[in-house]
Write a structure and sequence with these properties.
With 221 residues, this protein is α/β, with parallel strands linked by helices. The protein has six helices and nine strands; from the N terminus they run E-H-E-E-H-E-E-E-H-E-H-E-E-H-H. A seven-stranded parallel sheet has the order 3-2-1-6-4-7-5, with helices on both faces. A hairpin with a 2-residue loop joins strand 8 and strand 9. Helix 1 packs parallel to helix 4. The radius of gyration is 18 Å and the shape is globular. 33% of the residues are buried.
């Protein structure tokens, strides 16, 4: 495939139920050339399973799906829902046209109606065995991201022995796993936190995070 401009992939995560999945998603994201992981809703995550890969992929946070969609559309990026829907296309048919953000559903219930609304199209992963109804979200992400990389013509990483060569860590990792925030975003998060405790989007720790903690970002630019 010939591209006139750089094609990128993104992973879009909306209030993932199991926060440790973000760490394993980051590992797959770095393996398959993802430009950014975009967290919507809660911005803290568990890096368990990442094996240090959170230092090799940039994170971005938005409070709403609408804000995330605006950001992606400004970059001429399609949003692809990974879900078995009536009009979903098999991912190995490569129904891609440009840079794409992949929205993965909740581990239990899949994509919600609200999440489906922001998607431009859907892909599913064909299965050939009869023992399971679906795949774990991180396994599904790996397959889809690999297929996109094949379509986009991403360059294969160099190998050494029986491993791929790992680059020097480009981003400084902070003590806490938070996505980058501006002071305005911190103020907005505090407001939303007060309103959303009953929804379980944020944990009630019994005390306010200090601005210095909230701005203790995962990456330095």
């Amino acid at each position: 495939m010939e591209n006139e401009k750089k094609v990128e992939s993104f992973v879009l995560v909306h209030n993932v139920a199991k926060r440790h999945n973000v760490g394993t998603l980051a590992r797959s994201a770095t393996a398959f050339g993802v430009s950014e992981m975009i967290l919507v809703g809660r911005r803290d995550f568990n890096a368990f399973g990442s094996h240090g890969s959170t230092s090799h992929v940039r994170f971005r946070h938005f409070h709403s799906l609408a804000d995330a969609k605006t950001f992606l559309k400004e970059r001429d990026c399609d949003i692809c829902g990974v879900e078995i829907t009536e009009n979903a296309v098999a991912v190995n048919e490569h129904p891609f046209k440009r840079s794409t953000a992949f929205l993965l559903g909740n581990e239990g219930s899949g994509l919600s109606a609200k999440e489906c609304e922001i998607c431009d199209f859907f892909v599913y992963i064909p299965q050939y065995g009869c023992g399971t109804a679906s795949l774990n979200v991180t396994v599904a992400a790996s397959i889809v991201l690999h297929q996109f990389g094949v379509w986009a013509g991403f360059s294969e990483r160099a190998r050494e022995g029986n491993k791929f060569i790992v680059a020097e860590r480009p981003f400084k990792q902070a003590k806490k796993n938070y996505c980058m925030e501006t002071s305005e975003s911190v103020a907005e998060e505090r407001r939303l936190k007060r309103e959303s405790l009953s929804n379980g989007f944020f944990e009630d720790t019994g005390k306010e995070e200090s601005p210095s903690n909230l701005l203790n970002t995962l990456f330095d630019h």
